[in-house]
């Protein structure tokens, strides 16, 4: 059986400051995770693994130690949800500067669209071609971001849309999905870094 592996990038500088989005590089913990990920795929038998990475620096850095014979592609569609006017802010900043936005988002997180940015619903629609390809491919590792991976997991786990934006996907953990006839087996490998 083939498997789909999903991971967020390692901890970025913005993650460590609680800031949304941006394009910051990995912290030293994030770099440790990138090494641990490469080690995992040294041991795991995954013939012809394809690596699909977002176009953000933190995702590319997370995949950089993987064996060069794994074919890597960089998909813009795998970039993190665009938080528009809230990019680079913390949740507290947003609460203070744009209290109405915080409130609207809490009210309907799936449909809420950041001004000049995206909603989860928008991310789901831009991921359609990625998911179609994932359905056709053999072994794939996706290196992406929290909101994007929530959308992909909700599809494979068949979770209701209102729950999608709350699926827990911690940093430094790798999800292995093995599609079966009517469900997906999943294993989570967590790294304590
Ligand atoms: O904080 C990391 C991050 O990936 C942000 O870039 C993104 O806006 C956020 O998580 C998505 O999570 P939530 O929708 O819960 O704010």
Automatic annotation (TrEMBL):
Binding site for substrate: 8-15, 58
Catalytic residues (UniProt): 9 (tele-phosphohistidine intermediate), 80 (proton donor/acceptor)
Similarity remark: In the C-terminal section; belongs to the phosphoglycerate mutase family.
Protein name in UniProt: 6-phosphofructo-2-kinase domain-containing protein
Gene source species: Caenorhabditis angaria
Organismal lineage: Eukaryota, Metazoa, Ecdysozoa, Nematoda, Chromadorea
Range within the parent protein: 248 to 440 of 460
């Amino acid at each position: 059986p083939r498997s789909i592996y999903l991971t967020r990038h390692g901890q970025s500088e913005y993650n460590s400051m609680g800031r949304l989005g941006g394009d910051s590089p990995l912290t030293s913990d994030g770099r440790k995770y990138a090494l641990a990920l490469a080690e995992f795929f040294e041991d795991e038998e995954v013939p012809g693994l394809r690596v699909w990475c977002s176009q953000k620096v933190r995702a590319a850095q997370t995949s950089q130690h993987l064996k060069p014979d794994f074919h890597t592609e960089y998909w813009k569609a795998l970039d993190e949800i665009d938080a528009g006017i809230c990019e680079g802010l913390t949740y507290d900043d947003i609460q203070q500067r744009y209290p109405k936005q915080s409130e609207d988002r809490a009210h309907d997180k799936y449909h809420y669209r950041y001004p000049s940015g995206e909603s989860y619903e928008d991310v789901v629609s831009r991921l359609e071609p990625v998911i179609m390809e994932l359905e056709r491919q053999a072994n794939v590792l996706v290196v992406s971001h929290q909101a994007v991976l929530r959308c992909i997991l909700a599809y494979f786990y068949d979770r209701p849309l209102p729950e999608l934006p709350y699926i827990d996907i911690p940093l430094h953990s790798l999800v292995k999905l093995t599609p079966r006839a009517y469900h997906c087996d999943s294993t989570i490998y967590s790294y304590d870094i």
